[in-house]
Amino acid sequence: MQQELNISTLPNFLEELRNVTVGTTEKVTKTPASISSIVTILNNHILVTAGLLTSDEAKNSWDILNDKPNSGTENNSKKESPSSSFLKLFETVSSLLVNESLTIETPFILLKKTELTDPFYDRLNSSVTISIPETDKKDNFITTILFASMDNVLPPRDKENSGFMVINGKVVLVETRAKIKNISIISEILNDTLKDPQCVFWDFDLFDGLGGWSNQGCSVQSQNNETISCICNHLTCFSILMSSDSFKDSELEDITFIGVGISIGSLVICLITEALIWKKISTNTTAFLRHVFIVNIAVSLLIANIWFIVGGSLSGAEKKNPPACAAATFFIHFFYLAMFFWMLATGLLLLYRTVLVFEGGFSKTSMLVSGFVLGYGAPLIISVTTMAVTLPSYNYIRANHACWLNWDDSKALLAFLVPALVIVFINFIILLVVIFKMLNRRVKRNTAQAQEQHVLVVIARSLAVLTPFFGLTWSLGIGTIIAPTNKGIHFAFSLLNSLQVAVCL
Fold first, then answer.
1. Residue limits of the G-protein coupled receptors family 2 profile domain (predicted)?
2. Count of alpha carbons within 13 angstroms of residue 16, beta-carbon side
3. Residue 461's pLDDT is what?
């Protein structure tokens, strides 16, 4: 039979074998001779044959079958895939075994049925350990099936169908009639270069019956370089999914750091220029405030870029330092926000001087103080609040200790994206209002008013460039979250983000 199995006959074979087993459940479970025969069949036929079907040589065939979503059985309205049917077979077989201790080991599969203890602990082999802290052990048994290479059979299809996950742990099936609250599984990882682990189980109902991996009810308890500890509140077929694309892309890193270098150079030139012309700045209040705002935008971005480099060094270090990474994240968050709020202050200055008055109004000192309160006070409140809320639950920085705000667990990144995009939107509205007012003003002006008008035009021109540029940049930033595997979006965002200082100044 093993020689006759191929891509076309395998689905029918699995379905037929499953139907025969389920159809004779009552006879099988009540006849000792039948049970003994099934153990022999399991050992000499099913487990050996099934094990061969999980070998590396069969992987290409399974890949072809898994790429055909409509290749399920004709007798079932659900589009159950052959790989899902294959796994379902083992669940059915495990539930039919008599309540007696037994162990069957083949080169590819280890099946064990043992009496359930309270608590329960079992080391299946050197790679997988199972523990159940609390059980109702009376007259109950537990069946475990450890697959050496089931990752060749099951596709790494998760709930989001993201397409960049990899099965990075042994697949283990656990079945018992006892009620349990939690089960802990410690598994060795197959590839220690992958990132972002997820503890998952095979959900046969996902994708209209095709099946897929789900993390519902399961979570990562702890991890190190060799093992991952998972905890789940239910029993089924478990494994570990990890990201095959952690975006440690050398070209992307080169673009980022080259861009940051250009930004730092532009900032230094800007600050030197401002220092040289500072004494020549006009006594005009608007012109003076414009230069003050430019200096603070430059200072904020310069410090943010320095901390960005520090954070990049901490993220790339072999030995992670979460406290230092959290500190770098705080300052990056604070000073990038400060840049945006100083941009908002610039827009509000333009609106105030255009719409309300050309002369009079608030004094230079009061507007200067207001600018500093808005430029540094608001970012400080947002940054401190974000850290205070997320740091105690270890959800401030990203799970892989990348020095930036967490997204997957706490959505802390919204504390940067929302203010930034709101400010871009406000400045866009301000720009439209100012342009409308300027085009419709037809009054004679004296020299002072003409000079004021010139300064306002300069500010408006700057906002006209910055507003769409920043809007596009951080829209791409959101795109990297929505489509985390799209390298085109990542490259575009990294390039624009690192060069925004040159455009700004």
1. 252-505
2. 5
3. 66
- Inter-CA distances, 147 with 57, 113, 170, 218, 264, Å: 16, 15, 6, 20, 54
Q: Please state, in angstroms and rounded to a whole number, the distance separating the CA atoms of residues 122 and 32.
A: 27
pLDDT of residue 192: 76
Burial class (CB in 10 A: 0-12, 13-18, 19+), 82: buried
Q: Where are the domains of the chain?
A: 2-243, 250-504
Residues in the chain: 505
Structure tokens at 199: 């503890």
- Rg of the chain, C-alpha, whole Å: 32
CB 71 within 8 A of CB 16: no
The DSSP bridge pattern shows strands 171-176 and 141-147 to be antiparallel
Q: Which residues contact 428 (CB under 8 A, 6 or more apart)?
A: 467, 468, 471
pLDDT tens figures, 267-317:
888 788 888 887 776 667 777 888 888 889 889 988 988 898 888 788 766
Please, which residues have CB within 8 angstroms of residue 318's CB and are 6 or more apart in sequence?
none
Give residue 91's pLDDT.
81
Distances (CA, A) of 49 to 151, 297, 376, 467: 17, 68, 68, 65
- Asked whether 449 and 367 are in contact (CB, 8 A), the reply is no
Q: In 3-state terms, what secondary structure has residue 234?
A: coil
Predicted structure pTM score: 0.53
Q: Find out whether 84 and 110 touch, Cβ atoms under 8 Å.
A: no
The two structure tokens encoding residue 172: 């283990």
Q: Given CA atoms 264, 267, 269, 271 in this order, what sign does their dihedral have? A: negative
Tracing tokens 């965002």 back to the chain, one arrives at 493
Q: Within 157-217, where are the H helices? A: 206-209
Q: Which amino acid is at 334?
A: F
Report the top-level CATH class of 2-243: mainly beta
Cα 144 to Cα 452: distance, rounded to the nearest angstrom: 80
Counting as low any pLDDT under 70, the low residues of the chain are 1-46, 67-80, 137-139, 160-164, 243-253, 255-256, 281-283, 316-320, 356-361, 399-402, 440-471, 473-475, 477-487, 490, 494, 497-505
Rounded to a whole number, what is the distance in angstroms from the first to the last CA of the chain?
A: 74
Q: Which CATH architecture has domain 250-504?
A: Up-down Bundle (1.20)
What pLDDT shows up at residue 484? 55
For residue 234, how far is the Cα from the chain centroid?
A: 24
